[in-house]
């Protein structure tokens, strides 16, 4: 069995969908970090379900909206003195900006490159977002 020691002060990103940990790891640019990090893939949880986990031995700013968009089932644990000080349960954000790119060639974002790509959540259960400018619908599992 693989053993990863606990961290003293930092962040644990838990309950990541199996296989998606690497996407979040790269989004956070942890592959370029100069502090200890761990990416654990396909770990078995107490519920006997596989998950990915990221451990970061450092305090850093996280964009919770983007992380919630990437995987709404994530739990963020803030660790201080080897104990969980705060637990944050993520969900799909109501709005995302410059996370999804509108693919509609008639959208203003296709012509005017300075216009930010803004999407609003229209159906949380289906994971559907709508472009604020052209009403194009995107599902998060198809991106």
What does this protein structure show overall?
Pfam families: PyrI (PF01948), PyrI_C (PF02748). The chain has helices spanning 21-27, 64-70, 108-111, and strands at 10-16, 37-44, 50-56, 75-80, 83-89, 95-97, 118-123, 128-131, 137-139. The mean pLDDT is 90. By secondary structure, the chain is mostly beta strands. It is built from 3 helices and 9 strands, in the order E-H-E-E-H-E-E-E-H-E-E-E. The chain has 2 domains: 10-89, Alpha-Beta Plaits; 95-142, Aspartate carbamoyltransferase regulatory subunit, C-terminal domain (SH3 type barrels, Roll), CATH 2.30.30.20. The relative contact order is 0.16. The protein is elongated and about 50 Å long. The longest helix is centred in the first third of the chain and has 7 residues, at 21-27.
**What is the chain-wise order of helices and strands?**
EHEEHEEEHEEE
State the end-to-end CA separation: 35 Å
**Count of DSSP strands:** 9
How helix-rich are the residues, as a percent range?
10-25%
Largest sheet: 5 strands, antiparallel
Topology:
Blueprint: E1 10-16, H1 21-27, E2 37-44, E3 50-56, H2 64-70, E4 75-80, E5 83-89, E6 95-97, H3 108-111, E7 118-123, E8 128-131, E9 137-139
Antiparallel strand pairs: 1-3, 1-4, 2-3, 4-5, 6-7, 7-8, 8-9
């Amino acid at each position: 069995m693989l053993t990863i020691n606990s961290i003293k002060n930092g962040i644990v990103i838990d309950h990541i969908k199996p296989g998606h940990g690497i996407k979040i790891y790269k989004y956070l640019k942890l592959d370029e970090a100069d502090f200890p990090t761990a990416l654990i893939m396909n770990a078995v949880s107490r519920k006997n379900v596989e998950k990915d986990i990221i451990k970061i031995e450092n305090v850093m700013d996280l964009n919770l909206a983007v992380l919630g968009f990437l995987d709404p089932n994530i739990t963020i644990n803030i660790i201080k003195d080897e104990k969980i000080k705060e637990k944050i349960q993520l969900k799909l954000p109501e709005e995302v900006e410059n996370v999804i790119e509108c693919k509609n060639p008639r959208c203003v974002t296709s012509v005017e490159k300075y216009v930010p790509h803004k999407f609003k959540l229209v159906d949380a259960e289906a994971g559907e977002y709508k472009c604020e400018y052209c009403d194009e619908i995107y599902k998060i599992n198809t991106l």
